[in-house]
Specification:
By secondary structure, the chain is α/β, with parallel strands linked by helices. The protein is built from 10 helices and 8 strands. Helix 4 links the parallel strand 1 and strand 2. It starts with a helix and ends with a strand.
Length: about 230
């Protein structure tokens, strides 16, 4: 079980479980999701959120960039129009679960129901069946990884993160964590919702996002979204 807990952070464990952390690894695991050599991915977990998601979409639009939003079903039920807007504006979506609860403490039956309900909720709101999956807190259990694959979902973790959910962080720290030594193929983890993290954390993420996008442009990296 330890390797499941470490896989979001330790490449060796992620590779051992066959869980991609970069776009290169994603393309190798799922050739239909391969991207070009000068690309990176910005991903947002936990939404949609009435303020945070709208802010991220507006900033992304202003910079002409795309992202992948890992949606929570219970949030989609509350804000279906926002989920639809994400797709309409050309961004990708993935499943983050129907509920934002850690997989290792849930039964296989509860997990299977969570996956199926989450997918049905997203399809009902957007008309799109997600291809990608990321578990809450970035932690699979043996049962949930098996279920994801049985349902045809491709797991994707991350190679860089802003740790933007923290209460005492700042936009500058968030941006610096993301852009220091940024490389082609990096998958960036951010959050557009504060419902499962420090209150108003999405405001700091929104403040950091323009700097992150500017650095991506300076590095001549295009962002990708899989729809």
């Amino acid at each position: 079980m330890l390797r499941y807990l470490l896989s979001p952070h330790v490449p060796l464990f992620a590779r051992g479980l066959g869980i991609p952390r970069t776009l290169g690894e994603l393309g190798a695991a799922a050739p239909s999701l391969a991207s070009g050599p000068s690309t990176a991915a910005i991903t947002f977990d936990d939404g949609p959120h009435p303020q945070g998601t709208r802010q991220m979409l507006e900033i992304l639009s202003g910079h002409g960039q795309r992202a992948i939003f890992f949606l929570v079903g219970e949030r989609v039920e509350r804000y279906p129009d926002l989920a639809k807007r994400i797709v309409h504006e050309g961004h990708g979506i993935g499943l983050h679960g129907q509920l934002h609860r850690p997989h290792p403490v849930r039964s296989a039956a509860a997990l299977k129901d969570d996956f199926e309900r989450g997918l049905a909720t997203i399809v009902a709101a957007t008309g799109v069946l997600p291809q990608l999956h990321r578990p809450p807190f970035g932690v699979y259990s043996p049962q949930s990884l098996r279920i994801a694959r049985e349902l045809g979902l491709q797991p994707l973790m991350w190679s860089r993160w802003g740790k933007d959910w923290r209460k005492l962080t700042t936009p500058e720290r968030i941006a610096r964590r993301v852009v220091d030594n940024l490389e082609a193929g990096d998958v960036i983890l951010l959050h557009d919702c504060d419902s499962y993290s420090a209150k108003r954390s999405h405001l700091r993420t929104a403040a950091a996002l323009p700097e992150i996008l500017s650095m991506l442009k300076s590095a001549e990296l295009d962002t990708v979204a899989f729809t």
